[in-house]
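Hello,

Our lab assistant flagged a job as stuck in the queue for most of the afternoon. It eventually completed. Since we weren't sure the result was trustworthy after the delay, we are filing this so someone can double-check. Below is the sequence as submitted and the structure that was eventually returned. Let us know if re-running is recommended.
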Amino acid sequence: MRIPFEELKTEFKRVLIKLDFPEAKAGQCAQIFAENSRDGVYTHGLNRFPTFVKYVKQGVIKPDAEPTLVNAFGALEQWDGNLGPGIINALFCMNRAVELAETNGIGCVAIRGTNHWMRGGTYGWQAADAGFIGINFTNTIANVAPWGGTTPTLGNNPLVISVPRKEGHVVLDMAVSQFSIGKLQQYQSYGEQLPVSGGYDKEGNLSTNPAAILDSKRVLPIGFWKGSGLSLVLDLLASVLSQGKSTKQISDQSIESGISQVFIAIKPQNTQQTDDLIEEIINFTKSSHQTNANKPVAYPGESTLKTRRENTTKGVLVDEKIWAEVRAL
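-- returned structure --
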């Protein structure tokens, strides 16, 4: 079914106010949850909201907590999220990185002790909307086996890179696993197979069965050994720059919390040459011969813009069962 965007946002805010969120924070979180579903990232919009509520009730997420400055080194700052809402902390950090980049050309904010930021791409779009190149990444609980291993000792550590563009920003938003855990759960709930192999079953065979992959806990890293290495270095960077918890330390807990994240903003040269370079790269990429005449080559973020327009006009697609669950909260 489809729900108007404003109705979705209003319902989220109602629940958050009931959970003693301050008015402003309730509005910010509600906006982001609604935007995630509007943009087609249902796994981190409506579908994730009941889990977010559960964590708030359990005290894992602290509605009143504010980030505090730990250290500042020129264009680099370290903050502590004090276990506040990950969305609020992430919005703050990218905004602060943009402020530092406005002055220094580049700004880097690392935060420890924060919570899940939901859709990482949110903060890439935030940087691009402000006219800045954005890079942000996070570590997670261990949910990916390293190349050559059979037990999860790496996180799927999402990475986002965004480039501002007048005709539509370029925003790469990817987990280091072939499919995010949320996407696997979505396929499982719909009783669907994955379009390509996303991990291994308990017998060690590559599988398109999301239930078998979630059961084995052997999610496939992107690019096999390359994704395994990328996950490792992202954990290193997030933990070292923030002086926060690593994937190992997060995994020693009973729940994913107190994670480490990094937000980088870079001020590009605002010139016609910059615009021309971006268009040249995109146009050359899209000039490739299509394997499917009905599926044109797209740049990262292009399908998001298409889904955003459709869901804004027609209403946001929602899972009826989860929508009913949220309305009952």
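-- support follow-up --
The delay was a queue issue, not a problem with the job. The result is valid. The radius of gyration is 20 Å. The first strand starts at residue 2 and ends at 3.
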